[in-house]
Amino acid sequence: MIGVMTDTEKKEKKGWFRRLKEGLKRSSNALSTGITDIFTKRKLDDDVLEELEELLITSDIGVSTSAKITANIARTRYNKEIAPDEIKEALAEEVAAILEPVTRPFVLDESRKPHVVLVVGVNGSGKTTTIGKLAKQYADAGKKVMLAAGDTFRAAAIEQLSIWGERTGAPVMTTKVGGDAAGLAFSAYEQAKANGTDLLLIDTAGRLQNKGHLMAELEKIIRVLKKLDADAPHSSILVLDATTGQNAINQAEIFGKVCDVTGLVMTKLDGTARGGVLVAIADKFGLPVHAIGVGEGIDDLQPFAAMDFARALSGSEQP
């Protein structure tokens, strides 16, 4: 719903921006310090542009994206003196222009019962925690949520999801360690449909790009779900760990081929100086960015906002 924000909503937005800025401090410090060093009493000439482009590349924004951003900044400012704060705001505007088209919070399709979401990503990316946080948010909103512990390779993953189920009041379907993940997904879908569940979140094992048999199993889960509903899974969310930097780009490419990724969640932005990789991924793949995480707390997974992220990344102040 679009309208005038209440005082409470404004306060919450400011609070989240502060947390986002704090979380992205390691990423923004490198950019901010570099920009200040480059632009102190200098004109925006070819040498300065080259330094700026190199700075963006080392911030994991990617070669082609960095070149595009630099060229756009130079278009109206070439050979002019420009202060560090001006360049930070210009950078924020260019980054936001890349991110705005992919800013798309996850929306539950209430015409489907259940809306089936397959959550994928490599080990340690934060899949299970992301599922738990999404379950909490939708359960708190009064929706009927069910979880399926499809990461059958790790007992810890099954246990972790069970704990989230207890916290959220959501039933969790599990199987033995090493059990058939596709069979589990099939049973979970049947039960969720019978129970009138609104949202079924299916965890999966960490698929390493060089493990063909794991990718084959993921494809099997999708095939099995389609036997019950040709459109299932209705969403495939890829969870990426920001600390992996450029490896996140490879993961987005490979998972996109295997399971038709419909959206991204990026976690652990508070633990890295590589937050710029989200800009590179958005520019290259155009995949919707649903949410970002800047901490372990339940409220640290928030819908993605392009300009907030861009300003926090560049070190520009919120207007």
UniProtKB/TrEMBL annotation:
Question: Which SMART domains does its entry note?
Answer: AAA, SRP54, SRP54_N
**Keywords tagged on the record:** Cell membrane, Cytoplasm, GTP-binding, Hydrolase, Membrane, Nucleotide-binding, Receptor
Q: Which residues form the AAA+ ATPase domain?
A: 113-260
Its predominant location is: membrane
**Which residues does the record give as GTP binding sites?**
121-128, 203-207, 267-270
Q: Is Nucleotide-binding tagged as a keyword?
A: yes
Q: Which family does it belong to?
A: Belongs to the GTP-binding SRP family. FtsY subfamily.
Class of enzymatic activity (EC top level): hydrolase
Function of the protein: Involved in targeting and insertion of nascent membrane proteins into the cytoplasmic membrane. Acts as a receptor for the complex formed by the signal recognition particle (SRP) and the ribosome-nascent chain (RNC). Interaction with SRP-RNC leads to the transfer of the RNC complex to the Sec translocase for insertion into the membrane, the hydrolysis of GTP by both Ffh and FtsY, and the dissociation of the SRP-FtsY complex into the individual components.
Task: Provide the SRP54-type proteins GTP-binding domain boundaries.
Answer: 114-315
Entry's EC annotation = 3.6.5.4
Indicate the quaternary assembly: Part of the signal recognition particle protein translocation system, which is composed of SRP and FtsY. SRP is a ribonucleoprotein composed of Ffh and a 4.5S RNA molecule.
Protein name, as recorded: Signal recognition particle receptor FtsY
The annotated topology with respect to the bilayer is: Peripheral membrane protein
Instruction: State the organism named in the record.
Output: Sneathiella chinensis
Q: Which InterPro entries match?
A: AAA+_ATPase, P-loop_NTPase, Signal_recog_particl_SRP54_hlx, SR_rcpt_FtsY, SRP/SRP_N, SRP54_GTPase_dom, SRP54_N_sf
